[in-house]
Amino acid sequence: MEVILLLSIKISVNGKSGSKVYVNDRELKMSKEQLITYIKTLRAEEIQKIEVIPTSGADYDADSSGGVIKITLRRQRENGTQGSVQLWSTANRYGFNLNPSANIALHSGKLDLNAAAWFTHQEAEAHANEQTIYHTNASELSSKSDAEEESENYGGRLDAVYELTKNHSIGLGGRFFLSDVLQ
Fold first, then answer.
1. Are 107 and 43 in contact (CB under 8 A)?
2. Contact assessment for residue 69 and residue 13, using Cβ atoms and an 8 Å cutoff
3. What is the residue-level pLDDT of the chain in tens, covering all 183 positions?
4. Are 71 and 19 a contacting pair, CB within 8 Å?
5. Strand order in the sheet with 26-27
6. Residue 75 — left, alpha, or beta (φ > 0 → left; ψ -120 to 50 → alpha)?
7. Residue 120 CA, distance from chain mean position
8. How far apart are CA 119 and CA 177, in angstroms?
9. Element (H, E) at 34
10. 30-66 burial, b if ≥16 CB within 10 A, otherwise e?
């Protein structure tokens, strides 16, 4: 069995994409970049075990076709705060993307608070020229199209989990997403 954690590209099990990551039996529903950033922040002494399930059964979502990676953290985590800020961008002759994001996690006693926010700015343009000449009746058809688009997306999440007992916890979470096409 092969497990690949390519931290800059993807998370896959046996080369299949669509892998789900669970921490303490809770699925991490983050963007690929946020998930990779979170995994990078885990320290070895915080991890009790890592299980790889190459073919997920009925216990997991049907869309986990790439298997499941279960990370179990040690219960006695230190109180404190950790977080990260990330900025990535791509650019080419057709446009560019700018994607800043940040997340913060607070652990205090039996309470865990997690928050994240992200923003995406995208500008793209496309140009097409076409010319068709019909030889049967000496007709000519030409067309040209130009398209430019600018969009912005915002999102965030806030989760709180309180540990009632060693084996029981209660949590509440919320997410929001806004999209605005500027042109």
1. no
2. yes
3. 444 444 344 566 766 677 788 888 888 777 777 777 777 777 788 888 988 888 766 666 656 667 888 888 876 567 888 888 888 888 888 888 898 989 898 989 889 898 999 898 888 888 787 877 766 676 777 777 778 888 888 889 898 988 888 778 888 888 888 877 665
4. no
5. 26-27, 20-23, 68-73, 47-53
6. alpha
7. 13
8. 10
9. helix 32-41
10. beeebebbbbeeeeeeeeeeeeebeebeeebeeebeb
DSSP 152: E
CA-to-CA dists, residue 164 to 11, 106, 168, 169, 170, angstroms: 32, 17, 6, 5, 7
Length of the chain: 183
- Rounded Cα distance between 64 and 84, Å, is 27
Say how far apart CA 162 and CA 169 lie, in whole Å.
6
pTM: 0.54
Q: How far apart are the first and last CA of the chain?
A: 48
